[in-house]
Please model this.
Amino acid sequence: MATIRIQGVPLKPNKHVWISLTDIHGIGRTRAYRICDDANIEPSRRVSELSDQEVHTLSEACAKYKLEGDLRRETLSNIKRLRDIGCYRGDRHKRNLPCRGQRTRTNARTRKGPGKRAVVQK
Model:
């Protein structure tokens, strides 16, 4: 059987269905279980065990949600809107700093990038 694609994302054949669904942007654990329930597919089955009909019903169940490209586009447009109106959160996005109140004196290395080394004057 060829690789199974849902929303343009190839699902790993040797994984359980619900785990493989979480590879799709916008699907977490809870939504993966809900999609399996909507499609009447046992979440613990392997992706390679699914029939073509089951893959089709799984794809239809995923189509009810905003996923992958549409979700990424909406997120980026929300950030762009915040930047354009010049609000605090938009300013923090512009400067690549945390926008949800975290401290930046220490930590925040994920958002700020690698640490800047202090230059010692001789």
